[in-house]
């Protein structure tokens, strides 16, 4: 963690203490539990005992926080004995439990006090609370089990945020308000993209026709990109014998697997990842060094037993489609292949409108070699290859020590969306260990059997999660090529429906996705509806458009290019409210195709 982040975390953690002090002051008898800093803020857990608290109470709590802050001084931190700590917090069962656990683990016990609020804490606080803790805001309330254990008491968790300056706080609060408007769960309902059915279960999204179009367009683009770059697509089943995950050593190390099932007296499991299945493709026949890099890909559905409290819309699901690729390489090919893959990933970001990105390289924790497969030398070689590739492509990166998977280091690529929020998308993992687990070898120039390395690559990760990010990135207003409906045809009255149907047919023949609104509504209502559905273009048909139009032959409609000679007119409006006026249909189609081809 860099110095700036450490400073900010100290301030936010200090503000969690301030929140605890205010709530306890307003509600005598309440017990505060833990209050750490988190990304973009902090939280404090409370056992409210006989009291209740809601977001409506936030102004009162914030007011009390500001009043208490006036008398706060730099935090005084001191180490105390177990006996003293138990005495000081005898009335708080949560602090007592922590103290006893610390004592068993032979950890030192520290208390802190900014002047009028004693608390149990390991340290890391503000040196000038009056000045540094001014710019805070309480955000939300949630339930949280004590120590994350569903068998223990549900506590009340209050979330808040703090920034060093008012300008930073205001920007963050604006961003949060905008994020609420862009929430993919709300837009997913409003735009008819997907649903979560109680009958099917949490974390198992169903894509509605419009959402299925968007999903298909994403997958089609990824398939074409990969095929054009040498990947061969495979298909693998959704289940496998559990033994394959013992061989890969995921069993016992990967805690998101569903329980095994019995089939023909053998144990099978829903696949939580595609890797072991893809390894079977490599093992299908003897491989030569001449075949490497050997690249295979699949948009494969996997199943992960996420806790019900953690699933969220499309961002975290139990059935997810990974745009998986596995590339089997010689060590000498590592650098070139990493550069190649990272360039492809950049192309993907450009396609979907992400302009800023950076990397995080997840490394092993060398202090705990027992957590990882393979030798320290292999790990060092793999980690250096990732770092050198990022440096070569001038990708900014930071390192996450201890965040690697048990079989290899990886690069995660983060992008910024249109609100400036950061999302982790692509993952490139270098693996020297699974080839040994599965005895995957190739024959080199000297006729010797050699283990390959494997690059595990997900360019967008989960298709479901990527869709959620795109929905929020675009606020539901997808670019033309990705919009499920590209044109809404809006006849002004029933008299104009027949001509509207002809226009619809011609647009569809040019592969434009069209929707005709022939309901008995005013044109104003139809325009509002199409605008709310974020359809890029609206074609308005009335008496003037029909009067201006001429058709050379009644049979010419829908027959190849004949309609190009017809003078068919429409009025066009954009979802942004811009009136493009009367247009020739043929010119309009050329305009649409030009915009689409710009992306494709």
What does this protein look like?
Helix content is 35%, strand content 25%. It is of the alpha+beta class. The chain has an eight-stranded mixed sheet with strand order 11-16-17-24-21-20-18-19. A hairpin with a 2-residue loop joins β2 and β3. α11 (334-351) packs across α12 (376-392). The radius of gyration is 30 Å and the shape is globular.
CATH hierarchy, class of the largest domain? Alpha Beta
The secondary-structure class comes to: alpha+beta
Taking pLDDT < 50 over at least 5 consecutive residues as the criterion, the unreliable ranges are 552-563
The overall pLDDT, averaged over residues, is 92
Q: Which homologous superfamily in CATH is the superfamily of the largest domain?
A: Bira Bifunctional Protein, Domain 2
Instruction: Give the biggest beta sheet.
Output: 8 strands, mixed
Domain Aminoacyl-transfer RNA synthetases class-II family profile: 209-479
Family: Belongs to the class-II aminoacyl-tRNA synthetase family.
Main location: cytoplasm
GO molecular function, one term: threonine-tRNA ligase activity
